[in-house]
Amino acid sequence: MNAAGILDQLAITHELLSALAGSVDDSDCRAQHHPDLSPLGWHLGHCVYIECFWLHEQVRGDDSVTAPLARLYTPPHTPKPERGRLLPPQSQLLQWAHELHAFNRSYLANLPAELADHELFHDDYLQGFLLQHHSQHYETMLMVLTQRALAAAPNDFQVHTPLQPAQPVRDTRQVPAGHYRVGGRRPEAFDNELPVQRAELGRFDIATHPVTNAEYLAFMEAGGYQDARWWSPAGWAWREAASAAHPDHWRRNGRGEWFGIAARGPYELTAGEPVLGINHHEASAFAAWADGQLPHEYQWEAACRLGVLEQTGRAWEWCANTFHPYEGFESFPYREYSTPWLGGDHYTLKGGSLHTRPAVKRASFRNFYEPDKRHIFAGLRLVY
User: Fold this and answer.
1) Is 51 helix (H, G, I), strand (E, B) or coil?
2) What φ, ψ does residue 245 adopt, rounded to 5°?
3) Is 6 exposed, middle or buried (0-12, 13-18, 19+ CB in 10 A)?
4) How are beta strands 378-379 and 316-322 bridged, if at all?
5) So where are the chain's domains?
6) Using alpha carbons only, what angle is made at residue 345 by residues 319 and 297, rounded to the nearest 5 degrees?
7) What does each C-alpha distance from 238 to 22, 231, 367 come to in angstroms?
8) Among candidates 12, 293, 281, 305, which has minimal Cα distance to 130?
9) CA dist., res. 384 & res. 382, Å (int)
10) 43, 19 in Cβ contact below 8 A?
11) 172-379 in CATH: which number?
């Protein structure tokens, strides 16, 4: 994508961020709807702050906008539960975001000649970095709105076509043993996708489709949540502590029929759509029950590049491996994007969801979460 295309997409993403923050009233804009998620207004303000931090503080040495806001919008400094009360009134936040976003786009479109050679602007790196950063926060804001909708979920939603269970179908494609490219390339790739790796893989069979709602219901109705043999010790401990018995985004009406909850409220679950709203523990338990495994991210990426995967980008897909640094990894443009999460307690996800912006939908992109997180739009695909 060229510079003009990136700025066009950045403008669209700016509008989307503000639209989500403005879709609720002031109270909801500053409310924390989930322990792991910041308020909607904080996400919008953080995206403005990050733009100004890189464009003006880091590149130009001007911290007049960022210095007063650093404690609020730098995650380690203000805990999530305290962020909402520190936000300005919603109307002021929206106007401030609109004005600074417009100013920053104009600045990027008309870079001063003396800055054109700055390393952050080589190949439009910073423009693409900001687009991807904001795109990830857009998806997180939809997670916030989904949790808000879950808290108000009705118990009388009428389901016209009740979801029925279906045993998993082994529709697979074989990937031959060989050496495969793993990783991305600058300027699009984040530091954790670099440098490109040469992965040696044995032969494996991978499902053409992600696990569906109907297949996951079969696991539930077979007692999957009550049978410890399908769960790792850590997974079983989580299941018991959480009293989990279904995906996070599912609810049941008075007639015992399952339905889903999205940001805009309840909807009918379609049998063939990928299940989402499950964590790594749940994905691993389903895989064990179905006599399969979660793929290593190298297997997933190799299969994706070969074009044998269908329905990618509809639900993030949990992988078997923890989030790790590639050989030769170097943090860039700042340590905190990847390095703090490389300690082995996060797992990789691949592919993207229906809510993932195009800027981060690529085979090499690596999402990462702790194994107990289920508020994300995540499901799974099996290997055998």
Assistant:
1) helix
2) -145, 5
3) buried
4) parallel
5) 3-151, 172-379
6) 20
7) 36, 10, 22
8) 12
9) 7
10) no
11) 3.90.1580.10
- pTM for the full predicted model: 0.96
Q: In the structure encoding, which two tokens stand for residue 42, read together?
A: 């904080």
Q: List the Cα angle 139/344/250 in 5-degree steps.
A: 40
Strand partners, 197: 182
282 three-class SS: helix
316 class by beta-carbon count within 10 Å (0-12 exposed, 13-18 middle, 19+ buried): buried
Tokens of 3: 């510079």
Contact in structure between 259 and 253 (CB atoms under 8 Å): yes
Name residues whose C-beta falls within 8 Å of residue 27's C-beta, 6 or more positions apart in sequence: none
281 near 378, Cβ under 8 Å?
no
The CATH number corresponding to 3-151 among 2.40.128, 1.20.120, 1.10.10, 1.20.1440 equals 1.20.120
Helix or strand holding residue 347 (H, E)? strand 347-350
Tell me how far the alpha carbon of residue 89 is from its chain's centroid.
Answer: 28
Strands (E), 288-354: 316-322, 347-350
The token pair that represents 78 in the structure block = 């203000």
For 259-294, what is each residue's pLDDT tens digit? 999 999 999 999 999 999 999 999 999 999 999 999
Name the residue with tokens 């009134």: 89
Structure token digits, residue 298: 């190298």
The answer to whether residues 278 and 294 touch, using CB atoms and an 8 Å cutoff, is no
According to DSSP, the β-strands at 316-322 and 250-252 are: unpaired
226-242 pLDDT per residue, tens: 999 999 999 999 999 99
